[in-house]
Amino acid sequence: QVQLVESGGGVVPPGRSLRLSCVASGFTFGTYAFYWVRQAPGKGLEWVAVISFDGSNKYYADSVKGRFTISRDSSKNTLYLQMNSLRVEDTAVYYCAREWNGGDYWGQGTLVTVSS
Amino acid sequence: DIQMTQSPSSLSASVGDRVTITCRANQGVSDYVAWFQQKPGKSPKPLIYAASSLQSGVPSRFSGSGSGTDFTLTISSLQPEDFATYYCQQYTSYPLTFGGGTKVEIK
Asked: Which residue of B has its CA nearest to A5?
């Protein structure tokens, strides 16, 4: 069955970096685009970034542009989110999702807490 | 960016009630709208795509309608497991954007 499993979250001080991973299984990874969405505590959903099926196109939310980088490794069926210069306002649960018809499969999420 | 305005932000309803949630886009998005259900501590669950198509495994009491700028999610007969927060999303262009959410609570 289709599965997306995120990892890499944790507690980091402001200004530091963190890399999130999302391992996909149960389908042909290289056929789909993927995106990251985050949800701050008690808040709604915020789209973060998307990467095309072949990695050639990437788009970012203005709030993370220049600080976050989305990438993928088809040999490992893995999606990444490199997060640099983290801010307190980046604190959230981060979800990866397969971009098909808006997002047909989502992972369980990984919590990132930015705090001194 | 396309803004999605969802209403109401919360509602109270009883089991068996018909519930309607609306979502309005500030520009046309054709039918590129999805709806998600989220329960506390869980990831969003896809319900509807292309404004009116049911995701696999979603009960038929859920339905979606609309095109252009105005969209609706309807639950025909609210069940105990339907108490949750619902989000609309447009996926016609980046950045993808979500509505602010509608929390459906027990009356």
From this structure: B43
